[in-house]
Write a structure and sequence with these properties.
The protein is an alpha/beta fold and 187 residues long. Helix content is 38%, strand content 18%. The protein has a six-stranded mixed beta sheet, covered by helices on one side. The protein starts with a helix and ends with a helix. The relative contact order is 0.18.
Amino acid sequence: MQLKNKNRLTILVVFLLFALPVVVAYLLGSGLVDFDPEQTKNHGVFISPPIKPADYSDSDWVKALPGHWTLIYRTPNVCDEACFEWEDKLHRFNLTLAQNADKLELILMARDFDFSRQDPYEHINKIATKGEDALNAVFNDLAEQSFGAGEGLYVVAPEGYLMMAFTPDNEPQDIIKDLKLLVKRKG
């Protein structure tokens, strides 16, 4: 009799081990239980749905986005001193990635640039978007999730999609943490 009860208990435990995750998944998926975790690892804001710049421009730099992570700072104006300060920030973000720095491409995007200025950061691509009306409209709309007024800091995934925006509330160390997590992912 004892062996029979022990076998029943074993069968019940095995059944519960398999049934419990199904029940929990059903409850969470059905909306009967309102579970929304407040803590996430990322500090940036996910762009939902992700935006593919290739849908709005056929420029060579857009075609080159897939295959690696890209960090873009964008201003809708001509790149002035404040814009070029972001060039230094982009460089510093890249330096913090150490051995993974080569996995992150950097883009400074503006309506136009003063190319007579000496460029200490030749590894940062400068993209002038004058005449790219469709792409500029997308970035202007997207800026509301980032810095506003057409400005923003964005991450492009290796698949070629704009997938994350950073806000003024994000401290540099928050941005660095997100970048380190992202470039560890195979890209």
